[in-house]
Structure prediction request, 317 residues.
Amino acid sequence: MRNEFIIGSRGSDLALWQANFVRSSLERQFPQLTFSIKIIKTTGDEQLEVALSKIGDKGLFTRQIENQLLVGEIDLAVHSLKDLQTTQPDGLVIGAVCERELPNDVFVSKNSTTIGDLEQGAKVATGSLRRKSQLLSHRPDLNVSEIRGNVPTRIKKFNESDLDGMILAFAGLNRLGYDSAVSQVIPFDIMLPAVGQGAVAVEIRTDDNEVAALAATLDHHLTRTCVTAERSFLRRLEGGCQVPIGAIAIVAGENISLEGMVGSLDGAIVFRDSITGHAGDADELGIKLAELLISKGADELLREDRRQAETTDEAVI
Prediction:
C-alpha cells in the first residue's frame, strides 16, 4: 500500500479550506499515511474579468484538476460539488460526498436587514444567473450586477463599492469566517440554491481501489442521496453556468422531497415544482421533476436563456 497521497485543489481560500478539511479528515482516519495538497489553476480562475456564462461551463473550475488526476499527477481531487459536471469524465468517479453545510444563499448588505428592506431600484451584485433570475422574480425593481472573484475578493469589492447588497452562498462565507457579514439567510421559497451547493466532493480514479477505500470513509450517505436527486434533475435539463436552474433535496426518514426551478434571465418567467418519493429512488425522482418542468415549457425557456447569455454583454465588477 502507498504511504503518500496527493490531493489536487484550486488555490482560492475556500478551495484550500475544503482541501485541508479533507486532508485533516483522512489524517485522523489514517494517521500512518501522509497527505499533501497540490494547487492547480483552472480556466475559471484565470478569466476573472468575464462573466461565467460567457466562458462556457464544461469543467470550468475542474477540467485541469481532473486531467492531472487522470494521468496520475494527483491521487484525489477536492471540489465544491456544485462546480462538477453532472457526468464525470471517463475514468473518474465521485468517491465521497462530505456532509453538507447549510445550502442556502445569503444576502449581504451595508444597511438592509433583508432583501425586502431594500429601497426601490437598489443595486445588488451576484455572480450567478440562477441567483439573478430568482432575485428579479422576487424584486423586479432591483438593479442586478455581475460580480466575479473568490469570497474575500467579492467582500472587498462590495465594501469598496456603492452596491446596496450582494448574494453569496452561506457555505463559503461560514467556512472562511465571514458569517458575521450575513444580513439574511435567504429562504428557499425566495431562492433555491445551486445543485450540490454546500457539499464537498472527492473525485478519484475509477480503477484506484486503494484511494476509493480511503475516500469512502468521508462519504455522508444522506448528503449523497440529496445531491444524487439534484444532479439527476440538472443532468436531465442539461444545465450549467449559462442557465438559471436551482434545486434542493431534503431527506425525511425513508422519503426524499426535491424542489426545482428554471427561470428566465430577467426573472419574468419561473417554472417551479416539487416531487416526493422514496429516498432509494433519488436518481429517478430528479429525472421525473425535470420532465415535469419540461412539460411546462422549461426546455424552450432554457434554449432562450442560452441564446441570451451568449449574446448579451454585461459589465463585470
Remarks:
- The chain has three domains: 4-100+198-219, 105-185, 235-311.
